[in-house]
Amino acid sequence: MTQPYSTARLIASRQPGFSLPRELYCGEQALQDDLQQIWYREWVFAIPSCEIARTGSFSTLQLGEYPVIIVRGADGRVRAFHNVCRHRGQRLCPKTSGSSPKLVCPYHQWTYDLDGKLLYARDMGEGFDPSRYGLKPVHCADIGGMIFVCVAPVPPSLADLAQNLMRYVGPSALAESKVAHSSTIIEKGNWKLVLENNRECYHCGGSHPSLCRTYSDDPLMTVMEGPNAASPEILAHWDRCDKANLPSRFVHGDNMQWRLARVPLMDDAESFTMSGKAAVSRRMGTIPWNDAGALMFYHFPSSWNHFLPDHAIVFRILPISPTETEVTTKWLVHKDAVEGEDYDLQKLTEVWLATNDEDRRVVEENQAGILSPAYEPGPYSPSQEAGVIHLVDWYCATMTERLGLQTAAE
Ligand code: 3BY
Ligand code: FES
Ligand code: FE
């Protein structure tokens, strides 16, 4: 098959430490390769488990070409399935979330149990064997209240991430929380631009007046070298957290695919609010102090998160087209916190609603500039954009390994 360019060749030609070649940010073939080699092979953060707390609660997402449904069964287990009816392929559930005792196809009402078994199909004739037409499963893992899915036949190992993530988010007791607010926006930018922008705070001072009230844009606050190598302020915070058995030190996965670290906010701020004070009077889980800082967790390719003492904010990105990305943000609070009494929704959400919109604008302008034939890759700041370098290095290494193997097998 002839292609206008090869993603593998473009990646091989890139200059380390520089932004990527143009086609990787806007080409149709690049997106197809990203989907095939990354999005359909990696674990993708889907939802917080508290969103489907009860039997029959479900949530759906569109992962590239794959519609997926995640549902809680009568046994309490969370399962994921391809959201595709086994009769004639209708998308089984068109809603993004809801609750239903059974999964009923809207077309001809084939009816599936919450574990995917086909329970009922009208007038299918003698010899029809419903056991052959259960929903197709998708790999699904609930790690400490964060649900990940993977559409690959054999998913990569989650052991290392699972062990660390459970330990770090454990004190936030995500399973004992609820979604106070959810926002979904489409950014007109390639998914890698959305993620690159998230991995640095070089732009924060110029773009995020409200976030910068409580979050330091000093690269020393986001760039950590190891569990004992960070700025004196962070090291002091980690010492204090250690004494309270609050896992906080920087840990990361192979090739920096994920990272966990708890960092203090500015001037003893408690939360990402305009005042710096907690937005929710009831703390989550067993976090011991209002000023425990933000546990930062990212996982490539789909997610970044902030677990604060009073609330958590989880973010999920999904590619929509070469130049469009869906960004979903959810604000979690203790399940017994009452809106209007324990928190004010506007105060809880205003900083990150504004920040998301500010990020959307810079990402869209970044994409608009890159669409120019005059764009050429430019250098990342080694101190300010080390996180972006980790991202593009992970991306290029992963793609090269997989596209390379594919070529060798041909
Ligand atoms: O979209 C719906 O409401 C239903 C419930 C579960 C499956 N779906 C067809
Ligand atoms: Fe689902 Fe016919 S396509 S019942
Ligand atoms: Fe930003």
From TrEMBL:
<dbReference type="GO" id="GO:0005506">
    <property type="term" value="F:iron ion binding"/>
</dbReference>
<keyword id="KW-0479">Metal-binding</keyword>
<dbReference type="InterPro" id="IPR036922">
    <property type="entry name" value="Rieske_2Fe-2S_sf"/>
</dbReference>
<dbReference type="GO" id="GO:0016491">
    <property type="term" value="F:oxidoreductase activity"/>
</dbReference>
<keyword id="KW-0001">2Fe-2S</keyword>
<keyword id="KW-0408">Iron</keyword>
<dbReference type="InterPro" id="IPR001663">
    <property type="entry name" value="Rng_hydr_dOase-A"/>
</dbReference>
<dbReference type="InterPro" id="IPR017941">
    <property type="entry name" value="Rieske_2Fe-2S"/>
</dbReference>
<protein>
    <submittedName>
        <fullName>Rieske 2Fe-2S family protein</fullName>
    </submittedName>
</protein>
<keyword id="KW-0560">Oxidoreductase</keyword>
<dbReference type="Pfam" id="PF00355">
    <property type="entry name" value="Rieske"/>
</dbReference>
<dbReference type="Pfam" id="PF00848">
    <property type="entry name" value="Ring_hydroxyl_A"/>
</dbReference>
<keyword id="KW-0411">Iron-sulfur</keyword>
<dbReference type="InterPro" id="IPR015879">
    <property type="entry name" value="Ring_hydroxy_dOase_asu_C_dom"/>
</dbReference>
<feature type="domain" description="Rieske">
    <location>
        <begin position="43"/>
        <end position="149"/>
    </location>
</feature>
<dbReference type="GO" id="GO:0051537">
    <property type="term" value="F:2 iron, 2 sulfur cluster binding"/>
</dbReference>
